[in-house]
Q: What sequence folds into this?
């Protein structure tokens, strides 16, 4: 599990590469006084500076290749409190973000996930107009969602605990399987209609344990 914060678009900056190393561990004093370490990564497809805090407390800063270093460090400085909060949040989760649930808690999450899935499917299907049968939510160990040949959509109850950008991607992914029951180029083009940055979200979601 991880949480991210996106900065402004910086694609228009044309300053020369200022840091050729792709990954460096940096430590920056922050306003609250407590410095934290972060791994810094330049990414050729990145269009924004992004701060990510993982459930193990590690911090990742990704930036477009050409983003000036001062802009990146200022962003980290400005968001230092946010990072602190997220680290504290993860520290307060002994079993991670998906702890073992009691039966009651599970039923509550399941209902929340079902409401969320229905609402999101209706919203995104205004774009696609695909036919579907039932929407169900289950406790799945390996998948976030699935789509059957009978055009039933099924989602993992844990979507109720995910950041919305992941939920949107999962919903759109399964919705597009109503049309393309495969992962062909045509399928990804459908996904891209609603989620232009689906590649980034997919890469991030792969790091989240189901
Ligand atoms: Zn799929």
A:
């Amino acid at each position: 599990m991880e949480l991210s914060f996106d900065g402004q678009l910086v694609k228009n900056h044309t300053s020369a590469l200022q840091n050729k190393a792709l990954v460096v561990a940096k430590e920056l004093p922050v306003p609250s006084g407590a410095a934290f370490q972060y791994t810094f990564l330049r990414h050729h497809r990145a269009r924004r500076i992004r701060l990510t805090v993982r459930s193990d407390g590690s911090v990742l800063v990704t930036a477009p290749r050409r983003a000036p270093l001062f802009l990146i460090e200022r962003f980290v400085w400005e968001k230092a409190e946010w990072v602190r909060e997220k680290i504290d949040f993860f520290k307060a989760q002994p079993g991670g973000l998906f702890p073992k649930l009691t039966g009651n808690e599970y039923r509550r999450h399941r209902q929340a996930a079902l409401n969320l899935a229905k609402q999101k499917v209706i919203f995104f299907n205004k774009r696609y107009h695909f036919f579907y049968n039932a929407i169900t939510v289950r406790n799945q160990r390996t998948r976030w969602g699935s789509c059957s040949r009978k055009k039933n959509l099924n989602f993992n109850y844990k979507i109720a605990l995910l950041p919305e950008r992941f939920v949107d991607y999962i919903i759109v992914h399964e919705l597009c399987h109503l049309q393309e029951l495969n992962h062909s180029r045509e399928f990804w083009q459908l996904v891209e209609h609603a989620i232009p940055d689906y590649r980034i979200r997919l890469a991030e979601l792969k790091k989240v344990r189901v």
About this structure: Confidence is low (pLDDT under 50) at residues 11-25. The chain has six helices and eight strands. The longest strand covers residues 2-9. The helical segments are 69-78, 80-91, 103-128, 164-176, 185-194, 198-205.
